[in-house]
């Protein structure tokens, strides 16, 4: 008598979908830590309580853990790795370790794709370019730091950072407005320039997160990133470029809603057929920094 093969768990299906969208081979393994960093406890008393729900977040903070547990999520996809360096212990004295202990106790897995999303076709940096030009025709789009190692055929030509040449120069102010809208109507950005705000921009380079190393050799007029060090910004301005920063995770977070959520939903629909599931984006995740007007205190 033929035996039926058990269906993979929802958590495993999510992990497989993420690996198909953003293979871990795309990540910068020289320093990054990506993949399934916290597996789901193989305890039916826990897993049977979990819903077929995945929660997307940029960072795995305490409030995000609360949110995941309240939603009875099976798995969290956290863009930034929850574990960067080796752990010698797991205690409640450290906030991140305490969060991991809570997730282990509840049987919730954590998958972290990070630089695999940065590098991928249709990934984070392509999205940043898209929101900046707002559909304007591009004459050329290039990868700033190509991946030279062997990759799956569909992912060849990927890498970190992007540069685009515009067919028609655009006013800097229009690009900044586009950026604001694309980042969820972010009101404030930081700018370093000696050319003023009335520039016409014909080339843009982007790097989500911390972009100093990736952007330093770009000759684009406008450099857009989450954060850049003081001395790196001075160098780029001295070279005649304009630098715009938006805070580290603000350059990444809206990608989850605008691109990753629909991409993952499509993958899961194909894999799960008619089985119900939910892909949620955290409402508690936010950058640790905010800009305040001290005169209004």
Characteristic key phrases:
297 residues; alpha/beta; Udp-n-acetylmuramoylalanyl-d-glutamate--2,6- Diaminopimelate Ligase, Chain: A, domain 1; 2 domains; six-stranded mixed sheet; five-stranded mixed sheet; 10 helices; 11 strands; 23% strand; globular; disordered N terminus; metal-binding; metal ion binding; DUF34/NIF3; DUF34/NIF3_sf
How would you sum up this structure, described in words?
Strands 5-6-8-9-10-7 form a six-stranded mixed sheet. A five-stranded mixed sheet has the order 1-4-3-2-11. By secondary structure, the protein is an alpha/beta fold. The protein contains ten helices and eleven strands. The protein has helices spanning 10-21, 44-47, 62-70, 95-106, 115-119, 124-133, 172-182, 212-215, 230-238, 253-272, and strands spanning 35-38, 53-57, 75-78, 109-112, 138-146, 159-171, 190-192, 200-210, 222-227, 242-245, 278-281. The protein folds into two domains: 10-117 and 254-281, Udp-n-acetylmuramoylalanyl-d-glutamate--2,6- Diaminopimelate Ligase, Chain: A, domain 1; 121-249, Udp-n-acetylmuramoylalanyl-d-glutamate--2,6- Diaminopimelate Ligase, Chain: A, domain 1 (3-Layer(aba) Sandwich), CATH 3.40.1390.30.
Classified in CATH, the superfamily of the largest domain is NIF3 (NGG1p interacting factor 3)-like
Strand order of the largest sheet: 5-6-8-9-10-7
CATH architecture of the largest domain: 3-Layer(aba) Sandwich
Radius of gyration: 21 Å
Please give the alpha-carbon distance between the first and last residues: 75 Å
**CATH topology assignment of the largest domain:** Udp-n-acetylmuramoylalanyl-d-glutamate--2,6- Diaminopimelate Ligase, Chain: A, domain 1
Number of alpha- plus pi-helical segments: 10
Structural class: alpha/beta
Helix percent reads 25-40%
Instruction: Give the number of domains.
Output: 2
Tally of extended strands?
11
Name the helix and strand elements from N-terminus to C-terminus, one letter apiece.
HEHEHEHEHHEEHEEHEHEHE
CATH class of the largest domain: Alpha Beta
Binding site for a divalent metal cation: 80, 118, 248, 252
InterPro entries: DUF34/NIF3, DUF34/NIF3_sf
GO molecular function: metal ion binding
Keywords: Metal-binding
């Amino acid at each position: 008598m033929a035996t039926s093969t058990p269906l993979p768990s929802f958590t495993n299906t999510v992990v497989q979908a993420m690996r198909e969208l953003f293979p871990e081979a795309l990540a910068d393994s020289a320093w990054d830590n990506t993949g399934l960093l916290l597996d789901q406890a193989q305890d039916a008393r826990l897993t049977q309580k979990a819903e077929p729900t995945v929660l997307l977040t940029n960072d795995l903070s305490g409030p995000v853990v609360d949110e995941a547990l309240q939603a009875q999520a099976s798995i969290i996809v956290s863009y930034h790795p929850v574990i960067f360096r080796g752990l010698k212990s797991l205690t409640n004295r450290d906030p991140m370790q305490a969060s991991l202990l809570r997730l282990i106790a509840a049987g919730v897995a954590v998958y972290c794709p990070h630089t695999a999303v940065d590098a991928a076709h249709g990934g984070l940096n392509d999205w940043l370019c898209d929101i900046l030009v707002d559909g304007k025709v591009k004459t050329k789009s290039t990868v700033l730091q190509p991946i030279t190692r062997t990759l799956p055929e569909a992912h060849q030509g990927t890498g970190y950072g992007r540069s685009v040449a515009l067919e028609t120069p655009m006013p800097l102010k229009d690009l900044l407005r586009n950026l604001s809208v694309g980042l969820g109507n972010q009101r404030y950005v930081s700018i370093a320039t000696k050319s003023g705000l009335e520039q016409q921009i014909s080339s843009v380079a982007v790097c989500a997160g911390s972009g100093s190393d990736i952007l330093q050799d770009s000759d684009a007029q406008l450099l857009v990133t989450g954060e850049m060090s003081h001395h790196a910004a001075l160098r780029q301005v001295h070279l005649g470029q304009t630098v715009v920063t938006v805070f580290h995770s603000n350059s990444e977070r809206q990608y989850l809603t605008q691109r990753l959520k629909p991409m993952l939903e499509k993958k899961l629909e194909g894999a799960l057929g008619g089985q119900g599931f939910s892909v949620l984006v955290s409402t508690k995740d936010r950058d640790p920094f905010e800009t305040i007007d001290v005169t209004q205190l």
